[in-house]
UDP-glucose 6-dehydrogenase (Desulfosudis oleivorans), 455 residues
Amino acid sequence: AQSFEKKILCIGAGYVGGPTMAVIADKCPRYKVTVVDIDAGKIAAWNSDTLPVYEPGLLDVVQRARGKNLFFSTDVPAAIAEADIIFVSVNTPTKATGVGAGMAADLRYWENTARQIRQCADTPKIVVEKSTVPVKTAEAMAQILSMENGGNLFEVLSNPEFLAEGTAVADLENPDRVVIGSRQTPEGVAARDVLVEVYANWVPREKILTSNIWSSEMAKLAANAFLAQRVSSINTIANICESSGANVQEVSRAVGMDRRIGPKFLNAGVGFGGSCFKKDILSLAYLCREAGADAEADYWESVVRINEHQKERFVRRMLDAMFHSMADKRIALFGFAFKPDTGDIRDAPAITIAGRLLDEGAVLAISDPRALDGARSVFGDADGRVEYVEDPYEAAKKSHAIAVLTEWQAYRDLDYTAIYAAMEKPAFFFDGRNVADHAALFDMGFNVYPVGMPA
Ligand code: NAD
Ligand code: UGA
């Protein structure tokens, strides 16, 4: 058997665990990297050529390393027993019931993992928090880990992940920074240095930041809160643009060229989605409330409130334009995923918007290059009121309106003259992501409603 310099394990083979470990394995052939999950179906998919997550470039990375130094398995105890470094990348959803319901992070999966590590380990391990967790979670972990099995078998580090879906491989290969939090004791610093060495295989040293554990945990929540806040901020500006004659794309450009502000994350739209922004802001707001910082909690909660408002406002704009009735009108939804280049629909604005359109009596033709299975899992056939149509031309046929909810590149390149010809008249175009050439659509005869510019 080949001998490896280090054995790395990741518990949780999801959107973060799978791609992150694939890149580590690819960059560090001297390490053995194993990814385990309790979901056998997911592990089988990681071992096939139909990976459980779609990310551009990921299959190549996996195929380069899989079977050589990258392994996917369901044998959690054996993997724990042999590992030197254990990343924990399980899900940390919002708590559904009990204290903090709807706000606080549910740490049951994390805690289960810690208990399992304690049971199966009899050699020293570095345990790395990869999941996004409330500040001070590492302390709870250390407590669970230190029971029975003796005090100093485990050192807990915080190493949050900043990858975005759709660009996971590029983000992992070339991160803006890597953050590693540790205790400031000799043992903590030694463990931290082991993890620094892992990343230093491909990340420049000056991009590897070390800090205390709590700063590292807080940095992750703060980064997501800042990003989401930019989206809510530009959406509030967009909404005022619509009535004032300003154009939000021109405003974003003018604002973003200030180097202190920067051009990214200033696209107005139907609101942010994804599994993390809302959950992480609510988790941050909950931390604020628990610390007695109500004004601070209110501030961050308002970012989520504006986002909910944005989705409802989009539906209202459709209703207003379409004579206050959706009853039995066919609406083609272009895009269902929460962003392009992913099949992920978790917390997608499309879920809320489609649900509201169904409430209003509409019939939906949902189209998306990657997320139709996800959409089907949400709405089923809704008594025949929802169709799932791969081809946007088919989805638009005989529809009264098109609503663009995800900015897939494909939607920029369609033959809208042909689409217009096949629609009911008057034909409406609600561009929730500002992907289309609005003047051209107008000339074809569409009633065009972009976000953040006069109709
Ligand atoms: P996910 O739901 O895709 O994956 C989590 C996996 O953990 C699941 O496959 C689940 O079966 C597995 N799991 C749960 N308990 C387990 C156990 N006891 N043993 C083995 N496996 C177990 O979640 P994700 O999107 O990968 O997110 C994981 C964490 O990373 C979350 O805390 C999230 O906030 C954070 N995060 C996510 C992203 C993202 O883009 N999705 C980015 C940065 C950080
Ligand atoms: C986000 C962060 O960007 C990552 O750094 C972080 O690691 C991750 O959350 C996480 O913790 O899960 P992700 O949710 O995958 O990544 O995707 P983003 O590109 O951030 O987009 C989030 C949402 O905001 C999408 O619905 C997108 O359409 C929306 N958005 C983004 C806008 O509406 N306008 C923008 O200008 C940018």
Observations:
- DSSP finds 17 helices and 14 strands in the chain.
